[in-house]
Fold:
Amino acid sequence: MSWHSYFTKKQFAPGITLAPESNLGLCVVIPSYNELNLSKALDAIGKCKLPPCSVEVIVVVNHPEDSPVDIIKTSEQTVNEVEEAQKKWGNTQLKYHAIRAYNLPRKHAGVGLARQIGMDEAAYRLMNVSNPNGVIACFDADSECEPNYLTELHRLWQQFPKTHACSVRYEHPLHGSEYPPEVYNGIAAYELHLRYYNQASRFVGFPFAYHTVGSSMAVCAEAYIRSGGMNRHQAGEDFYFLHKIIPHGRFSELNSTCVYPSPRPSNRVPFGTGRAMSKLLFHNEPILTYSLDSFLNLLPFFGGVKDLYLAEEQQTLRFIGTLVEPLKQYLMRVDAVNAIANARANASSSKSFIKRFFLWFDAFMLLKYMNFAAENYYGRLPVEEQASRLLECLGIKQPYDLNTKDLLLTYREMERKDWHAIL
Structure:
């Protein structure tokens, strides 16, 4: 799809009238709905060291149709904050823009649509200055970052210009005075769950195990357009978007900088960080995770994939029959025998078969299996217990009295060193 066709098909109309600088190379997109402290995020970017290219911060100030007066008033205040940030930090190399995305259809209004509006705008501006490798970074209105955030994003694409997208290292704050102690304790458990899930997936050989956190991801303009752009999901938009890109390679992890997302509770979305924190604080629901056994069940399955290329249908069926009950039942439910046969029929080699297999058993399939196993066999378990079990499997020695934050720091350090890329 040509970039002209993409924008024509979407009937795109620019939301920013000011022409971009000819050397525009990086756009930071921030969705903002009913935000009362956006200036913290805007200042964090303003304090960053600037790369050689021009940078734009695109804030999508949005609210749905029929919003109450106080929400509409907050939107206008937010636009004023963006204008103040431009006066405070703006120069020929850094510009702040506000897009008034007001009265969005209630059916679609949400973070996915807001990101889509901003990312489409960024892609349009980058392509108009003939920079298909220009970077579109996603940030959140309640996040902060390290001062090298912009320069490291720019450097990644300078060093590896074929990169399509990346995840950026993130760390939630674990202490402070902005929130009560239970918030910091809760976010430690939730981040541990995210890192445990990622590392357990890698341990069992899943090839697409990467973090997909909306406030800490980036994509180049050309790859954004080729992937069909951002979706309009009201939650999980980051997961769905990145997993359209990750299976096709040229995906990286940027660990040389860091984004600091907020630990605040929220009921804006049906799942994710904010909702998990809300359930913990207001409904006393603990942070739980998937049993490590659910992951370990996959070891013989993923390990045997290469042998399925030459297997006949009955051999595939017998192989599935050797797997543990939760996985066997799930594979029968999703008609794995037929899916594997289709992958085999359309593969010209063992390598291409494995690629097609994991395009079928992708991140969505993995998550669905985890939920199936949790709901029908293992339940959801304390994250500290399962994270400790995984460390034992990885051969990482640990004291027996590690608390949640200690475990999280162990996982953070492990992932800081454990750099992955599909290039």
About this structure: Residues 3-286 form a domain with the Spore Coat Polysaccharide Biosynthesis Protein SpsA; Chain A fold (CATH 3.90.550.10). The chain has 18 helices and eleven strands. The chain has two domains: 3-286, 292-378. The first strand starts at residue 24 and ends at 32.
